[in-house]
Amino acid sequence: MNRTIPFLPGERWWGLAVAHGTRFPLTEQSEYTYHPTTQFTGNQESPLMVSSHGRYLWSDQPYDVEVRSGVIAVTNAKDDFALYEGYETLRGAFLAAVQAHFPPNGILPPENFFVKPQYNTWAELIYDQNQENILSYAHGIIDNGYPAGILMIDDGWMRYYGSREFNLARFPDARAMMEELHALNFEVMLWICPFISPDSAEFRELESKKMLVRNADGSTAIRRWWNGYSAILDLSNPETAAWFDELLAYLMELGADGFKFDAGDANYYRDDDLTWGNVTAHDQCMLWAKLGEKYRYNEYRACYKSAGLPLVQRLCDKSHRWDEVSRLVPDALAQGILGFAYGCPDMIGGGSFVDFLPGAPSLDQNLFVRYAQTAALMPMMQYSAAPWRVLDAEHADLCRAAGDVHLKYADTIIALAKDAAVTGEPIMRYMEYVFPHEGFADVTDQFMVGDTVLCAPVTEKDAVTRTVILPRGTWRYCDGTVYEGGCTKTVSAPLHVLPIFEKIL
Predict the structure, then answer these.
(1) Which CATH number, 1.20.1730.10, 3.40.50.150, 3.40.190.10, 3.20.20.80, labels domain 117-192+240-415?
(2) CB–CB of 295/288 below 8 Å?
(3) In this predicted model, what pLDDT tens digit does every residue of 450-469 receive, in sequence order?
(4) pTM of the full predicted structure?
(5) What is the pLDDT of residues 164-177, one digit of tens each?
(6) Could you tell me which of 16, 70, 93, 21 has the C-alpha nearest to residue 436?
């Protein structure tokens, strides 16, 4: 099916791909292309577009979009593709889409995801994950005044991909490590993926039972990903899903509380793959997400649809650059408008470990602090590079203070998360979502936490002021100053300040 949807005067559109957050909203002057079967983004995607004028587009399957000359041209859509109208505002259209296509199931991820910072071992240990240094990292968190929270042990703990066993050379007693981490009041999550190392016992077993994805010619698919070449689990096969659940159950018996479900991106599959369920590449991505729903402690980076489920959704890796910091708010807002309410920004400072190696010339301590501040009022925040190692004492204190801001607003965030589990409403909201038709549709560098807290992070190098567009009403700035809204204000925002306004009237 092909369809053209002309823009209404002044209309704005959002949706489709979280990684395109800085390209939205689309206007009558925009030029934009999105082909989901070939244009993979490495982050959450959805067949939803939603409009400031109370309209939305939806199909259960991917469709191609071309925007130019004030027209949205949709091609290769299935018969269920439709335009829905009459909901007046962005909020009205979004809530209608939620109820019709991805209603939440009422279940919330554990509250400590939202209360305390999370910690990931990746940037500190990279591929040298090992018991001694993981415990040292955990003790460093406590010793440096950070609260214990969720600790994610990243890629490198297992013998090989598909093995349930820890690498004994690096983890002589994984159970004892888990027990010590729990004694420090950490919950422990393990990195996991749907890849299987070839020439392993697991590979031979799974291949003999046709539990792996096969190429169109019937041969077992060996696909290249960022760590080399591996076979892939065919999660459309119930026996495969059961096998993987047994692997995860073993790890939980060992002491893991949950899992960071990495990879599973649609680009590692093909629509013509031979699979048990005869599914598409995007179907496999959805099955990977569905599998994680069984585990309360979970985290995803790549999902297709899957909104309304109690899944923690991390933003795709960002580099340690100012232009990448400025992407955090638009991308996180895009998560919310696609129904992924339980969002987490990338690791504070960025997920590119080379920037945090000893003596790395590219490390910008002010950027690290502003990154932490930008994450502070998002639903979650996650550290990886240890601030007490990579920063001087002054900047490390400011980074810890950003975590204190998150703790200060934790009750507000949890209340909004609980509401999201029932209504689907995002925790982080576009200005247009809360204040429709008041001229905020193009504002994507500040955001609302619920309907009454406005956050305007500083993401510009060396900036010590921040220009903020305030809606009508009375607002109290974080320094106590009261402003009347309905105008633009420039406020003081030195490095120790995260600009926050609370609506008081």
Answers:
(1) 3.20.20.80
(2) no
(3) 999 999 999 999 999 999 99
(4) 0.97
(5) 999 999 999 999 99
(6) 93
